[in-house]
Design goal:
- There is one protein chain.
- By secondary structure, the protein is mainly beta.
- 10% of the residues lie in helices and 45% in strands.
- The chain has two helices and 36 strands.
- The strands form eight sheets. Strands 2, 4, 6, 8, 9, 12, 13, 34, 35 and 36 form a ten-stranded mixed sheet that branches.
- A hairpin with a 2-residue loop joins strand 32 and strand 33.
- The longest helix is centred in the first third of the chain and has 40 residues.
Length: 449
């Protein structure tokens, strides 16, 4: 056999061996893949029980006859969708469906009759609310304000100041459980037929013809007890706003003092500056705005405030859960990627406000209310009424006060008229505790189980 023949024979055997190895490798890979498929099929993930995981963490259950608003906080997994429903005509929700953790408000009619009770269904839990008869000496008057309110001027406006925005006088002077009592609330959890409302259901009007006080139909319910303990954690009664980030509660007082609530139940001062006008959180960061100085971010590692903006012309600073916004004479600016980007024209906005998800502006010269679309970077007009005096956020909802002193709330179906003016109430939920800033500037902590 020649040398060339030997080389060719060896090359042919090596190719055959390589092919056999490839086939063997593919067989092993396929077998391993089949094994993984079988293993994956044999392990079934436990389905999420949204009904069991959705719980009311804060809810006041007894109201005075002239109290027209209530706040509620609900804890639920982010992917869980749940509904709310009123079983009586005098309690009204402006939305029917929510998802995940939510804090929102609902409306109660003034009660000039005898004490009454009514059931509401929140995430499958039926809770009974009680409203007392309004005292004879109590009167209801429309909130008054003079001048044109904006985030940059506090003179000549008979309104309360909250976090860079103005609110009309509250509809009621009743604090939340002012004695700090321990209240035990008994609720019932309804069956599936008791919670049938959804996004497709028509919105119940805020003002309209009287309806029957309560349906005569009853359903079988399983009793559930909600225990709620409420204590006042700040006696100063001069708090402007409260906010939370990274599991910690913060407050801003009228004096400009920024404080953090510690695990020992004490308030720790982080700053004390008379020019501080706003305290907000966005993107897991804490910010403060000092008038005529700029915007600062709290640095936990160094325990210092870092100056982000040297501009001294800002007139308001607000934030959604993801972005920080400021209003200046040269336009509206958003803080993104370590810098400021202009998103609104100069000398157009009169006031800017923000809810957890959305950013709004009230334009001057009667141009109405506009909502910012973060995805497209464009503004959409959501109110063409030209006589809007105040734009405000309370309890996570957007409100407007018109020059005729009528208050309106923005919801899924547009603007709905509400009674009693704009409520002043801020609710923050951190793990198992709910914190409420009431209309008197007092902070209450509520724990439920």
């Amino acid at each position: 056999m020649t040398r060339t023949s030997i080389v060719n024979l060896w090359a042919e055997k090596r190719r055959a061996f390589s092919a056999a190895f490839v086939i063997l490798s593919l067989s092993v890979t396929c077998a391993h893949a089949q094994t993984n498929v079988l293993e994956t099929q044999s392990v079934s993930s436990k389905p999420l029980n949204c009904a069991a995981e959705t719980k009311v963490s804060y809810l006041q259950t007894t109201f005075q006859g002239d109290e027209n608003f209530a706040a509620v906080a609900v804890k639920a997994p982010p992917t869980c969708t749940w509904t709310v429903k009123s079983k009586v005509a005098w309690i009204r929700f402006h939305r029917k469906e929510y998802q995940g953790y939510s804090v929102f408000s609902f409306q109660l009619d003034t009660n000039d009759q005898e004490e009454r009770t009514g059931d509401i269904v929140i995430g499958g839990q039926t809770v009974t609310l009680t409203q007392l008869k309004r005292a004879k000496s109590s009167t209801t008057t429309a909130p008054t304000a003079t001048g044109t309110a904006s985030a940059s001027s506090a003179n000549g406006v008979a309104d309360a100041y909250r976090g860079g925005q103005y609110y009309p006088p509250p509809p009621s002077n009743n604090p939340i459980n002012p004695a700090g009592n321990t209240a035990e609330q008994t609720a019932t959890k309804g069956n599936s037929s008791g919670n049938s409302s959804g996004m497709g259901m028509p919105m119940m009007p805020f003002i309209g013809a009287p309806q029957s006080a309560q349906s005569a139909q009853t359903t079988q319910n399983t009793a559930v007890t909600l225990k709620q303990e409420e204590v006042k954690i700040d006696e100063q009664a001069n708090t402007v706003t409260i906010t939370a980030v990274n599991g910690q509660l913060y407050q801003l007082r009228k004096s400009g003092t920024v404080l953090r609530y510690t695990s020992e139940g004490k308030w720790e001062a982080l700053d004390d500056h008379r020019n501080t006008r706003a305290l907000v959180t966005a993107g897991n960061e804490l910010y403060q705005w000092r008038k005529a100085e700029g915007v600062f971010r709290w640095e936990e590692k160094t325990k210092q405030w870092l100056l982000l903006d040297h501009d001294t012309t800002a007139t308001a600073v607000v934030a959604t859960e993801d972005h920080l916004y400021t209003m200046r004479p040269d336009g509206i600016w958003k803080y993104a990627s370590g810098g400021w980007v202009r998103v609104g024209a100069a000398l157009v906005a009169q006031t800017i406000v923000a809810t957890k998800k959305n950013f709004y502006q009230l334009r001057s010269n009667g141009q109405g209310i506009w909502e910012y679309d973060e995805a497209t970077g464009e503004w959409k007009q959501i109110e063409k009424y030209t006589a809007v005096k105040i734009l405000a956020v309370s309890g996570g909802d957007l409100y407007q006060l018109r020059t005729d002193n009528s208050a309106w709330r923005y919801g899924n179906t547009g603007w709905q008229h509400v009674q009693g003016g704009i409520p002043i109430k801020t609710v923050v939920v951190i793990e198992e505790a709910t914190y409420v800033l009431d209309e008197k500037g007092q902070i209450w902590m509520s724990t439920s189980g």
